[in-house]
Amino acid sequence: MLKSIKKFYLTYSDHTLFIIVCFILFFPLALYLMWRHKLWTSKVRGIVTLFALSFTALFGVIGYNAPPYISLLDESILSNYKTDNDSVGIHGQVSTLHNTKVQINGKSIDLDKGGNFNYNLPLAEGNTSIRLEAKSDKGLEFKQFKVYRTTSAELKERKIQAEKLASEKKRIAAEEAANKKKIAETHILKAKQNKINSMPVCNGKNIKSSCKSEGMIYKTYVYYSAIAEKSHTVKEITYRDEVKGYCTLCNDGTYSPSCATGRGACSHHGGVSQWNAPRISKVPVSVDKIIVDAPAVAERYEKVLDPAYN
After folding, report:
1. Could you read off the pLDDT of 189-231 as tens digits, one per residue?
2. pLDDT by residue (tens digit) across 47-68?
3. Which of 29, 111, 203, 287 to pair with 97, CA 20 to 30 A apart?
4. What does the alpha-carbon distance between residue 10 and residue 49 come to, in Å, rounded to a whole number?
């Protein structure tokens, strides 16, 4: 960077246009270059030098005798400034060439060595008139302006309006959300209907899932044919009672050996219980019995509805 500046200087320092530009931007350098490169005649150089020095002296005299200036960091405070705060900060700088004193609404304000000041002015509700003065033995400069502090009634009304606006925004947002939801639901229903329309009809055989039948949508729709009963036959022996004859029945449950019917029958068996009691015999009977191994199953459909469509 320094090499570039040096190169530029060495290249253009003896050019007339460059020296004239220096008179505008930094005239001491222009005077030096003018005399070094002997630009123009000695008489012209002398007149230019005298003019430059006279201008410098005049500027110094005017500056020295000028009244103090006031420079605010935030100039917006000077024009219809409004705030909700109970105070306003006034920050700026004044010239320190002479013994300058600063007052705000008649109150003296401290300055630092650079002439800077910072002051927070309390504000009443509504307009507050402010006069900022900078005074020295060379004169007086002042700035007169007003600052408006929002009143309690205005703050209350602003709050009401803000709540109304928030409520309205909330209502509009709710309506927009409801409309978006309705549109989304419509799209979903339309997509479902399109999918339903494109679904095949269930038959349970080659179309067994994701199909429709009689207005219903099924995840599973499987046909099972009827199954016949499975059984086998076995021979079962049972016994039936058959009367083989009649005999005297004794009290001990036995029959008289000779089936005697006279006196002394069952004398050794506790006496006669019944004359001509029937004598029952068990006769075997063979019966065919059917054993069911697996019951018959009627034809059926295994159906599982799809909850996403029903």
Report:
1. 898 889 888 999 999 999 999 999 998 999 999 999 999 999 9
2. 777 777 767 766 655 555 557 8
3. 29
4. 23
**Residue 79 per-residue DSSP state:** S
Phi, psi (rounded to 5 degrees) for 236:
-125, 125
Residues with Cβ within 8 Å of residue 252, at least 6 apart in sequence: 269, 270
Across the beta sheet with 216-224, the strand order is 209-213, 216-224, 300-305
% pLDDT > 70, the chain: 84
Q: What is the CATH number of domain 70-150?
A: 2.60.40.10
- Write the single-letter amino acid at 119: Y
Helix and strand totals (H; E) in the chain: 5, 13
Q: Which run of H or of E encompasses 192?
A: helix 152-198
Tokens 């899932």: give the residue: 209
Q: Exposed, middle or buried: residue 57 (CB in 10 Å: 0-12, 13-18, 19+)? A: exposed
Scan for tokens 């059926």, then name that residue.
Answer: 300
CB 98, CB 134: distance < 8 Å: no
Residue type, 131: R
Q: How far apart are CA 56 and CA 92, in angstroms?
A: 28
Cα–Cα distance for residue pair 225/55, rounded to 1 Å: 120
CB half-sphere exposure, 173, CA atoms < 13 A: 6
Q: What radius of gyration do the chain's Cα atoms show?
A: 64
The residues spanned by each domain of the chain are 2-65, 70-150, 199-228+301-310, 230-294
The alpha carbon torsion through 15, 18, 20, 21 (nearest 10 deg) reads: 180
Q: Is 175 helix (H, G, I), strand (E, B) or coil?
A: helix
